[in-house]
Amino acid sequence: MKPGIYYNMPSNDYHANEAIGSTTVKAISVSPANLYFNPFKGSKSAHIGSAVHAALLEPDIFEKDFILRGDIKTRASREYKTLLQHTDAEKILINGEVETVTQMIASAKMNTDFIDYIKSSGHSEVSMFASCPETGLNLKCRFDRLSNNYTYPLDVKSCCDATERGFSQAFGKYHYHVQAAFYLYVLKLVTGRELNEFCFFALENTPPYKNCMYYIGKDSLELGYKTLFESLRKLKKCIENESLRTEGIVLPRNEINVPNYLLDNEYVDEVYI
């Protein structure tokens, strides 16, 4: 794929391209073993996230491609199997999934900051391809939404807890700071635009479906860039030397203790009867 911007690339074509995406970079940032021996397989609820993404970012595609059948209670039913003959499984929502997606969409539309961004001039599902000048690796990313009027891209994240504390934990666990740095890096390589802001729209997938617009902090983005370039260099070495891919399987020997909460003072005064 030639370096550049692709506005109407089908999702399947993007994912089939062998260029390196943020998922690969995030995995190897943990360890090479995490990338090569624990490939990303998606989640069981990924189709719900895909449906919400489409409904919010590409409503025409949502209306055309997704089937909502709240009356079908199980995927073992004859009705579901009939639909499956003509539609991909990830495009079929049944039973309580329909209510979940409906409520998530309704929740998102209550956030005026989010709606203002979505309605501004711009494009959704923007694919970009570039070559890293430092490593020579081919890179790719797919922006959920790029506005012409705002100084930051927007990424929609389905989550179980949209509070600051809850989403901060997910932010670290799933290395969203590395994703932000990666996307901004590819954006700069392709367009020459150097942005230092990135927004995540956190949207709960369980009641009450809270949501929030979160803007990555300066320190987190700097850490993301540091981790990004370390990961790209590590990936380059692993491609050139396969023996390095097992790094991270054998952990360094260490001292082990009980969890800290068992050592807290509040447990010292326990009364035995």
Automatic annotation (TrEMBL):
It is an enzyme of class 3 (hydrolase). Its EC number is 3.1.11.-. Transmembrane segments: none annotated. Residues 43-243 form the Putative exodeoxyribonuclease 8 PDDEXK-like domain. One of its GO terms (molecular function) is exonuclease activity. It comes from Arsenophonus nasoniae (son-killer infecting Nasonia vitripennis). Gene3D superfamilies: 3.90.320.10. Keywords: Exonuclease, Hydrolase, Nuclease. Pfam families: DUF3799. It comes from the Bacteria. This is Exodeoxyribonuclease 8. InterPro entries: PDDEXK-like_dom_sf (IPR011604), Put_RecE_PDDEXK-like_dom (IPR024432).
